[in-house]
Design brief:
Blueprint lengths: L5 H20 L11 E7 L6 H9 L7 E6 L6 H11 L3 E5 L14 H11 L7 E6 L2 E2 L4 H11 L3 E6 L1 E4 L5 E3 L11 E5 H7 L8 H11 L3 E5 L6 E3 L9 H15 L3 H11 L7 H16 L6 H26 L4
Parallel strand pairs: 1-2, 1-4, 2-3, 6-10, 7-11
Antiparallel strand pairs: 4-9, 5-11, 6-9, 7-8
Helix pairs in contact: 7-11, 8-10, 9-10
């Protein structure tokens, strides 16, 4: 006999049960039901697209635990739409940041990242996954559920998101292509441990590539999800503010900031030359990188750039081997 009383034994049992429950709750990734998802949506003058986005957010088969709708200084009725949505959905809140001076290119100053980081600071505890989401999307109904399931199934997965489709001039929706390991900026779901390890992110062009490079450098996996219901629709195709050539120049600057290998820049320029406007798209991309290099604009930290070049060389070698295999007469 231990000498303890029945009351003491009952208390010990309760204590063990409470400790086990606390430890169980602290293990994100064990199953999808335990991963608490918080979404931060930053927008500026999105009155035209917000209704579609908000309707698709409300239609999620499994809603997130909380949503912050962050108006980053709109001058239209965007905030009124967000506030009305929040009033009807208890898991949503609408917040407003002060108006800022007009900018020639809001992406250059990474205003969206600043608004997102501010939004993360306003989240209510607890949360296990945070998603940076744009308001120019039409979400598939199971996006949140599928992202939650993917993160729960793979504890080593740090970032996920959906592939995106956009409507082309011919009216057809087509996927915006990219490697599977890339997660598109408009819908990035971060596991909390991953997000905290890669933060703070630099407020420069290319931050939404630098984030995944940092994640992979620290051993996390990143990937885009093939959703059975199809890709999320990007209502405003990437980079269309200011025209295509400006978009490709900006992409080149982003590549410089992230530390892309020069050989990968040349290959990327040749690839983009086949896109409209033909030839000029590739030149604009390479020029954007060269201009940034000449101006020595801010870049990612040295370790992240080194990791980016290592990944680029590995991809180029793999592509060369595939090409050589195709032309080898021995098959």
């Amino acid at each position: 006999m231990s000498g303890t009383t029945g009351t003491e034994e009952a208390a010990m049992v309760r204590t063990k049960m409470m400790t086990a429950a606390a430890e169980d709750t602290a293990l994100p990734g064990a199953d999808a039901d335990r991963l608490r998802v918080a979404i931060v949506v930053c927008f500026l003058d999105e009155e035209a697209l917000l209704p579609t986005f908000l309707a698709s957010l409300a239609a999620q088969t499994v809603p997130p635990e909380q949503v912050l709708l962050v108006d980053d200084g709109s001058r239209d009725d965007s905030f009124a739409l967000a506030a009305a949505f929040a009033a009807e959905h208890p898991w949503a809140r609408a917040l407003r940041r002060p108006q800022r001076p007009q900018e020639g290119d809001r992406l250059v100053s990474a205003a969206e990242l600043r608004a997102f980081q501010w939004g993360v600071e306003q989240l209510a505890e607890p949360w296990d996954v945070v998603c940076k989401m744009d308001a120019d999307l039409d979400l598939t109904a199971t996006l949140v559920a599928r992202a939650r399931e993917a993160l729960a199934a793979d504890p080593g997965l740090g970032m996920v998101g959906s592939y995106l489709r956009a409507r082309h001039p011919d009216g057809v929706l087509r996927r915006e292509p990219h490697p599977e390991v890339h997660v598109r900026g408009p819908n990035e779901f971060f596991r909390r441990a991953c997000f905290e390890q890669i933060s703070p992110l630099p407020a420069i062009l290319g931050w939404d590539t630098i984030d995944e490079l940092r994640a992979r450098r620290r051993g996390w996996r990143t990937r885009s999800l093939e959703l059975p219901e199809g890709d999320v629709v990007h209502l405003r195709p990437t980079g269309m503010h200011g025209g295509r050539l400006r978009m490709w120049r900006r992409h080149g600057r982003c590549a410089y900031g992230a530390g892309t290998h020069p050989l990968a820049i040349l290959v990327g320029g040749l690839s983009r030359a086949r896109m409209r406007p033909y030839g000029l798209s590739g030149l604009a991309y390479v020029w954007g990188w060269a201009w940034a290099a000449l101006r020595r604009v801010p870049r990612a930290d040295a370790d992240t750039r080194r990791h980016a070049r290592t990944e680029d060389v590995a991809r180029l070698r793999a592509a060369f081997r595939r090409s050589a295999a195709r032309v080898d007469p021995r098959g």
